Task: inverse folding
């Protein structure tokens, strides 16, 4: 065994100015600026952590009756909405529709759980 401390692997950021949309509106620039730190934090995590947390929230939301399940599902919807907002300019019409429908389904499930 080695007495060396374990080194944390750091993934390099993509090249270029890919975090920002060219010629974006003032509101879009502000949203992208506020989202830059969380996106970089998520990028540095192991790739399996974020999906695992979302799946855990989804399973919890579907399994727990009442407000607890609804809150977990609203958390999933919030993350999906944030990611949809960030990726919106690069999406096709079908991609935008899919994001909206996905968020609407999760929120409908949250409403059903809250009523149980």
Result:
């Amino acid at each position: 065994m080695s007495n060396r401390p374990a080194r944390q692997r750091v993934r390099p950021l993509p090249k270029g100015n890919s975090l920002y949309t060219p010629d974006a509106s003032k509101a879009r620039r502000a949203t992208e600026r506020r989202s830059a730190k969380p996106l970089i934090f998520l990028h540095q995590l192991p790739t399996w952590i974020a999906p695992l947390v979302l799946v855990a929230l989804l399973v919890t939301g579907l399994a727990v009756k009442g407000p607890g399940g609804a809150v977990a599902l609203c958390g999933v919807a919030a993350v999906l909405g944030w990611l949809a907002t960030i990726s919106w300019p690069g999406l096709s019409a079908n991609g935008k529709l899919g994001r909206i429908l996905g968020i609407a389904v999760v929120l409908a499930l949250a409403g059903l759980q809250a009523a149980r």
